Amino acid sequence: MSNGLVNMRDQSFVLYEQIGIQKLFEKEQFADYSEDVVEMMRNEAEKMAVNVIVPTYAEGDKEGCHIDKDGQVRVPRCYHDAYKKFCQGGWLAPTKSPEVGGQGTPVVVASSCSEMFSAANFAFIMYPGLTLGAAGLIERFGTEELKNKYMYKMYSGEWGGTMCLTEPGAGSDVGALKTTAKRLPDGRYLITGTKSFISSGDQDLTPNIIHPVLARIEGDPPGTGGISIFIVPKYRVNDDGGIGEFNDVRVGNVEHKMGIKGSSTCTLNFGDEGKCIGELLGNERQGIRIMFHMMNEARLEVGVQGLGHASAALEHAVQYAKERIQSVPVWDMKNPDAKAVPIIMHPDVRRDLLWMKAYVEGIRAMNLFTAYCIDMAKVGDTPEERAKYQGFVELLTPVCKAYSSDMACLVTSKAIDVYGGYGYCQEYPVEQYMRDCKISCLYEGTNGIQALDLVGRKLGMNKGANVMNMMGEIDATIKKAKSHGDLAKYAAKLEEAYFAVVDLTMAFAALGKSSGFLIPILNASPYLDIFGDMLLGHFLLQGASIAREKLDGIFAARGADSIGKKRALVHTDPDVAFYEGKIAAAKFFAIEVLTSVKSKCEAIKLGEKTPIEMAIESFAA
Ligand SMILES: Cc1cc2nc3c(=O)[nH]c(=O)nc-3n(C[C@H](O)[C@H](O)[C@H](O)COP(=O)(O)OP(=O)(O)OC[C@H]3O[C@@H](n4cnc5c(N)ncnc54)[C@H](O)[C@@H]3O)c2cc1C
What we know:
Layout lengths: L7 H12 L2 H4 L9 H19 L3 H7 L2 E2 L5 E2 L3 H11 L18 H35 L2 H12 L4 E2 L18 E4 L5 E11 L9 E9 L9 E7 L1 E3 L5 E4 L2 E6 L10 E6 L6 E4 L6 H7 L1 H29 L23 H33 L3 H37 L10 H8 L9 H12 L6 H18 L5 H25 L5 H5 L1 H34 L5 H10 L1 H19 L4 H9 L4 H4 L8
Parallel strand pairs: 3-6, 4-6
Antiparallel strand pairs: 1-2, 4-5, 5-11, 5-12, 6-7, 7-12, 8-9, 10-11
Helix pairs in contact: 1-10, 3-6, 6-7, 6-9, 6-10, 9-10, 9-11, 9-12, 10-11, 10-17, 10-19, 11-12, 11-13, 11-14, 11-17, 13-17, 14-15, 14-17, 15-17, 15-19, 15-20, 17-19, 17-20, 18-19
Bound molecules: flavin-adenine dinucleotide (FAD).
């Protein structure tokens, strides 16, 4: 039965049958893990998501966040109990080692749980999520003193954390920041400046909040190279570890937003009274390098956020389409006695649902595979194997972040279409999914910036070896699918898309070194979309080949040797229904999406430059 959030059967399929995370359990680092342990975790995560977090979803959206007269930000009241239970359940930092309060969980397993939490209420999950990211920086780059002072209390959820990069004049261009740090004689720094849009910037879930803040030490050079990072607590910490005096970090504003209303998004003023003290993390002028260490996992987490929204929207839409009775079937329209049927019987609705299913399952496989690569980059057997997986992480991260969030927004919009007018109203959750989902396209670097990262940095990284390795994986999928008679036609579509993308990528590489370098930059976003289409085609078809083999095994075991007998099993055997669904999604995606990849690549290769050649005056003349 659907939990209304995530198709657990499909998640199991991706984890065990497609990726094969069992390989991780053979590694020393994950020796405590087995399929049983992972299943226990996923079951507990499901209970936490469904029983504890979901009840905060609509209520948190309605109540939102506000600033009290005393300047303290209040989050939705229902978040308090859920936050306590979430932290007590050990969900804040499962991937961290037991020595610091974690459970050493593989990232891929934690990501599968994250999908459920994101689907349940992402606004809520941002509080522990940001704390995890901030504590992770202190763990990796902090001195023992910093770790003892802050990290343990953050990993347990006792204190909160944030990420303070953005300023009013420095969004995508972090290097333009104006926040300053002045050296003090005792080795600490006086911080002055304003940060905007800071998620969890202030809240009343925890008595202290620890802010990693990007700032420029007085006299350091402009641009990203001159930026350092500081740990700035809301309240200073006494020698005994207790909370001390206020550290002059004030909330200027809490944003009123389209979605994630339960997540406080704050303007923070550091040092209005000249009393804000920060401690350097790592070395001076290493701020950006340090921040980049948490980027891959943070960006993947945003991809999983998109996935969670899309997944919940799909689960609800399918359920609704089975229940909502409207209109007689098209083949019975002339029959005056015909009865109205559930809308899932109408071809257009079925098409919408399969479209949503294909994207959700493809995005799930892509994100979980990338999470698995993060694990393998750490525990692979040889340096070459670890490097190969790290290469996948680098290449796939901007695609997971941008493609997943962009497509998730479309999936949530499509869910509203399935609901009709009811989808637009607050009685059903799909309108909130769409509102909440949009932010995933914007923060952690806008999707436009992700596309530039893919085209400008990631394609050429490692002399193109990362792309070639990925293409090798896709090639194997094509060959395998071709060996399954009914999938060969669809494998040919993936092959056509694959050659077109290889061709365009090589054209970009040549243009990048010539006066035509603006073409790849101008087309970075469409390129990322096309690259994502190809990757999803690969993951879906890879899944379909596995499903084909499983089905053949089931049919043989059950003596289903005719089309009729096989069809009959779909209605009685849930595994048959599931695997048939996997194959249907892959076939549909290949025809619906992959067939247009080649023409999109050809269009880019025409080198059209109108958007940059037309006069700015002409845009709204
Ligand atoms: C709800 C919410 C929560 C947030 N949480 C945090 C947080 O916790 N911490 C934090 O530090 N920040 C946070 N942010 C800020 C977020 O990361 C920024 O909004 C984002 O990086 C974009 O910056 P900007 O809004 O200034 O847009 P701009 O940088 O002004 O960008 C506007 C548009 O121009 C494009 N653009 C800009 N530069 C280029 C370029 N060189 N080439 C091509 N296109 C370009 C962008 O892609 C975008 O489409 C949050 C924002 C929101 C709305």
